[in-house]
Amino acid sequence: MSEDQAKQSKEAWFTLSGDVNSDMVHRVFEAVGHMTEDGIATAHVLVQSNGGYVSDGLCLYNFMSKSPIEFVMYNGGAVASIAVIMYLAGTRRFASETARFMVHKSHATASPGSRPDALNIIVEGLRADDARTESILRKHIELTPEQWAIHQYSDLHLNSRDAKAARMINEIADFAPPRGAILRNI
């Protein structure tokens, strides 16, 4: 096998947990830089996150889905809110039998005494965020009309079987690095 072929088939195993925020964006940018330097072709990533900031999740989705690294994503516990959008950057996606997903519309809290023009800006921002995240959801998953209706007004919870039926995951399977593999935290 040539050196180029060896680099192309190189896999690595990672964990990524916490809030989706600017710190996570920085950690992922830095990790992907190291992955490309190390010749990693496929990164298996166990995600554990209850969500965070929409703009940071969208940035991670856009960056990871266009990265030269193939991301294989795993949910071993909970992937929720904007973390689901980041998770969908994976070309292959898996979840443990006991894992769950949750998606919902954007929300914000206005300052007490906010004027109508300030409230209108918040509402328009939320609508823009919802349009962006829903387009990504519709690109990757197939919810039933009943599930879309729940998503419209409430939190939609999916267990691993629901996620497989919606094509959010390829298979129900655990994150299981092979013996001897180096496991790195992003």
Automatic annotation (TrEMBL):
What UniProt keywords apply to this chain's record, in alphabetical order? Hydrolase, Membrane, Protease, Transmembrane, Transmembrane helix
Which Gene Ontology BP terms does the record give? proteolysis
**UniProt cross-references to InterPro entries, sorted A to Z:** ClpP/crotonase-like_dom_sf, ClpP/TepA
On the tree of life, the source organism's domain of life is Bacteria
Give a GO molecular function annotation for the protein.
peptidase activity
Q: Does the keyword Plastid apply?
A: no
This protein's name: ATP-dependent Clp protease proteolytic subunit
Give the stretches traversing the membrane. Answer: 71-90
Fetch the Pfam families from UniProt.
Answer: CLP_protease
Q: State if Glycosyltransferase is listed as a keyword.
A: no
